[in-house]
Fold each of these.
Amino acid sequence: MKCSSLSIGLAIGMALLGDAAARAQAPVDTPQFSGVVVRQADAAPVTGADVWLITLDRHALVDRTGSFAFTGLAPGAYLVEIRAIGFVARRDTVRLAAGRSLRRRYALTVQAATLDTVHTIADQQRYLSPALRGFEERRSSGNGGHFIADSVLRHNENSTLANVIRSRIPGVTFSGPYLVSSRKQCKGAVFAGPCTAMNCYVAVYIDGVLEFRSQMTDDVRNTAELRTIIPDLTRINVSDYAGVEFYADAASAPIGMHSDDDGCGSLYLWTREK
């Protein structure tokens, strides 16, 4: 009996060992991730493309048939990036389940050829005269006023100064050919009564020198005489000037700029360098 019991025990032990060995040799039930990478335009294989499992930092190269494969992966979600020279990189998220294989097809688009960005900087207008240099400094400061630059004036050389001002300077309007304030009709800070005529003419300076102010019309008795005093901007050629600036009242003019505008605004004209 003892011999028989020993034989049975040995048989059972051998069976258990055999089963364990068999289980050890059986393939592990892990998911696999594979696929192909092709060119979108014609479905040709993108040989040498890099398929990168970013989550695990593992790589697989695409073979000449366009195929790739990852094995020994644990179930879960993975971030994938497919890269190839001359193609737009593509990203994807895959979810792998235990005991199941996942196969994907990735079509890459050809990256458009781009030229290096060329930055060009226009030459800043360099003036010799202190007056025009001051004009450019005030225009660039953004501290108030309304400006018409030399480039705009050159673009409108076939027009009159009046036409350019109409569309670019607020706070003014025209009474016939003469520039007047659109903020009020009468000159001066305080009025004794209602205006009988629109006489808030804008003061005009040329290269910083006062050419006209509204008070100069106080003793004028007729229109003919008025025309000899007030600058007619419809007759002034744009090509003579390199800059225009306007301030609605003396308070808004920069410190140091003389302004006798009678509350009607000041227009400064800067002549072009020859």
Amino acid sequence: MDKDLARHVASVAFKASSRLTSLIPLLKEHSDATEYEAYAKAIASIAAEVDLRILNVVFSSYPDLKREIEAKIKKYGELTY
């Protein structure tokens, strides 16, 4: 995979994981405890899989992309591409 494709893959994977994680406060507010726990655990599991199976693989090939993404998030509060 070339670097541009790796950047795109990392961006999509990161955004997907972040979008799912952003549901947790909403679910906590509007779900009963049992339902919330089930969703929170599922979301955490999915986010961990995205990290393990996609982001870690991409970042092992292109470690500078991890720093690039972290810098964008720090600067803008979100991934901007």
